[in-house]
Amino acid sequence: MTESNPADDLLPTPHTSVAVGEPLVVLTDVDKYFGDLHVLKNINLTVGRGEVVVVIGPSGSGKSTLCRSINRLETIQSGGIMIDGSPLPSEGKALARLRADVGMVFQQFNLFAHKTILENVTLGPVRVRRKSKQEARAHGMELLNRVGVGNQAEKYPAQLSGGQQQRVAIARALAMDPKVILFDEPTSALDPEMINEVLDVMIQLAQQGMTMIVVTHEMGFARTAADRVVFMADGEILEEAAPEAFFTSPTTARAKDFLSKILTH
């Protein structure tokens, strides 16, 4: 479907959209600068509970900064971000609690090299959620099996493929029982043959009702798994629509130009 990943054609058929609940993530008039560079411009976005929102757009459009701002890995200059009715905390224990509720899966897997796969998954629940090691281990094994790497539990990250490591990263995010998971281009560091094994796990999460905000270049995934596509360019949200409407009838010239360059006809 895309020039970057012909394997998109192997994705399963689109899932039936889940019923979207009350607002879970709300961004209001958000502005973000890096020095003089205005990277997020008056962003307004609401994501409902159980919704899968895929954010796409050209490189440098502010997609990853948007994702990182929701988890406060980037600090915004103005506007507001609410998670499940509460404003984004600035620091301390409240911020740690927020990050427990807002999972994050990065481009790079960010696993601890000196810890086993299972230890990577159980560390957060024990330290932040205060679960017992026994409870965290049982839940961790359940999640590793769920993403298809349970037989790798006692190995170290370097012993796994990139696709396996990213599936472990997804299990690690799930282990915190998050309200929403942010995905920042989760397949961009993978070899093409490993991309679908990660996308398949993400599609399963979507089908199970996990609230997800996904920054990606995988147009096949956007068509298959999204409830809504958000198109960004030059730090602004220019368009948002259901996948079929966006891909067949984009309304802005910028989106039409973007799609004409990445989609094969």
UniProtKB/TrEMBL annotation:
One of its GO terms (cellular component) is plasma membrane. It catalyses: a polar amino acid(out) + ATP + H2O = a polar amino acid(in) + ADP + phosphate + H(+). Keywords: Amino-acid transport, ATP-binding, Cell membrane, Membrane, Nucleotide-binding, Transport. Residues 25-259 form the ABC transporter domain. It comes from the Bacteria. Gene3D superfamilies: P-loop containing nucleotide triphosphate hydrolases (3.40.50.300). It is a peripheral membrane protein. InterPro entries: AAA+_ATPase (IPR003593), ABC_ATPase_HisP-typ (IPR030679), ABC_transporter-like_ATP-bd (IPR003439), ABC_transporter-like_CS (IPR017871), MetN_ABC_transporter-like (IPR050086), P-loop_NTPase (IPR027417). One of its GO terms (molecular function) is ATP binding. It is found in: Cell membrane. PROSITE patterns: ABC_TRANSPORTER_1, ABC_TRANSPORTER_2. Its EC number is 7.4.2.1. Belongs to the ABC transporter superfamily. This is ABC-type polar-amino-acid transporter. It comes from Microlunatus endophyticus.
